[in-house]
Design a protein that fits this description.
The chain is 29% helix and 23% strand. It is α+β, with helices and mostly antiparallel strands. The protein is globular.
C-alpha cells in the first residue's frame, strides 16, 4: 500500500481535474479523492471542500514545487487557500478518514450547532469558516478572536 499526501483541496471534482491532469502530465501520478460518504452527509452542502488531489508521499515535494510555479498562471484559482498565508495545505480538522464513530459523533454535534465546521491551515494553523457560513468567531494561529 502506498502512502498518499494531499497537495490541494477543492469544492468539487471538476475544479480538481485540471490540477490532477497537469501533475500527471508532469510525471507525478495524482489522484482525486472524495470525502467518505458519512463525512459528506454531515456537511449538509454538496459543495463541501471534500475533494482532494493526492500524490505519492515520495513525490509530494516535487508536486508542491510545480503547484507554486503554476500558481502564477492562475491554475489554482479554484483551490481552497488559507486567508492568512495563502497555503494550499488546508483541511477540515473535524474529519477523520479512519473512524466512522468519530465522524458520526462530530456530525451529530455539528448538526446541533455545538461544533463548527472550519477550515484549518496546516502551515500557519489559522482556522476560518466556510464562505457563506455565519461565523461566530475566527481562529487565527490557534487563538480565538471575537467578530
Amino acid at each position: 500500500m502506498r502512502y498518499q499526501v494531499r497537495v490541494a483541496l477543492f469544492d468539487d471534482r471538476a475544479a480538481a481535474g485540471p490540477i490532477r491532469q497537469r501533475l500527471s502530465h508532469s510525471g507525478i501520478p495524482a489522484e482525486i479523492q472524495d470525502e467518505p460518504g458519512l463525512a459528506r452527509l454531515w456537511f449538509v452542502s454538496k459543495l463541501s471542500a471534500g475533494v482532494r488531489v493526492e500524490v505519492p508521499a515520495r513525490l509530494s515535494e516535487m508536486a508542491q514545487e510545480l503547484l507554486l510555479a503554476w500558481d502564477n498562471d492562475d491554475a489554482l484559482s479554484a483551490a481552497i487557500r488559507c486567508p492568512e498565508c495563502k497555503s494550499l495545505q488546508v483541511d477540515y480538522p473535524q474529519i477523520t478518514r479512519k473512524s466512522f464513530t468519530t465522524n458520526l459523533l462530530i456530525g451529530l454535534l455539528t448538526g446541533l450547532g455545538l461544533v463548527e465546521k472550519d477550515y484549518y491551515c496546516e502551515h500557519c494553523h489559522c482556522m476560518w469558516p466556510k464562505p457563506g457560513a455565519t461565523p461566530t468567531h475566527l481562529h487565527l494561529h490557534g487563538s480565538r478572536r471575537k467578530t
